[in-house]
């Protein structure tokens, strides 16, 4: 019965595609024909049967619901663990306990800069190419 419905939908789609071909041209008609052939292909390969069994089977829907529940629980536990880790880091900083993995000097360290200025205002560059680029920008008035 399902196959008959699929073939009927395919036939109806092909008739409509013929009309679209006459009105809008070959490209639109071919697109309609391609989409119209999908139900027949699904019926011939057994996909239609699989989908109808999935849609009308309460046991399979219960399985889908369990998979959804499992994913939600997994994601919620990840959020809870990350919040616990953040709270633990805040407590460690406040108490100054020895549980902290990184030393305080590393926590307060400033990010590295490719070019640092010395006291004379001239760049003390780690990379000579960056110093050259900085000098060109400074000469053009770009800071």
Structure characterization notes:
This protein is mainly α and 143 residues long. The chain is built from six helices and two strands, in the order αααααββα. A two-stranded antiparallel sheet has the order 1-2. Helix 1 runs antiparallel to helix 2. The longest helix has 38 residues, at 58-95.
Report the order of strands and helices. Answer: HHHHHEEH
Count the beta strands: 2
Question: Mean pLDDT, as a whole number?
Answer: 81
Q: How would you classify the helix and strand content by structural class?
A: mainly alpha
Overall geometric form: flat
Number of helices: 6
List keywords for this structure.
two-stranded antiparallel sheet; flat; 143 residues; 6 helices; single chain; mainly alpha; 4% strand
Brief digest:
By secondary structure, the chain is mainly alpha-helical. About 75% of the residues lie in helices and about 5% in strands.
List the helices and strands and how they pair.
Elements: H1 2-24, H2 26-45, H3 47-55, H4 58-95, H5 104-107, E1 115-117, E2 123-125, H6 128-139
Antiparallel strand pairs: 1-2
């Amino acid at each position: 019965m399902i196959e008959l419905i699929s073939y009927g939908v395919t036939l109806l789609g092909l008739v409509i595609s013929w009309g679209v071909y006459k009105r809008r041209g070959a490209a639109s008609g071919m697109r309609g024909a391609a989409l119209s052939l999908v139900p027949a292909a699904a019926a011939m390969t057994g996909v239609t049967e699989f989908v109808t069994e999935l849609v009308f089977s309460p046991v399979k829907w219960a399985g889908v619901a369990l998979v959804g529940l499992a994913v939600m629980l997994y994601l919620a536990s990840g959020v809870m663990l990350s919040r616990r880790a953040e709270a633990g880091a805040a407590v460690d900083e406040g108490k100054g306990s020895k549980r902290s993995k990184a030393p305080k000097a590393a926590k307060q360290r400033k990010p590295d800069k490719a070019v640092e200025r010395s006291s004379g205002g001239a760049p003390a560059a780690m990379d000579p190419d960056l110093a050259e680029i900085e000098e060109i920008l400074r000469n053009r008035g770009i800071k």
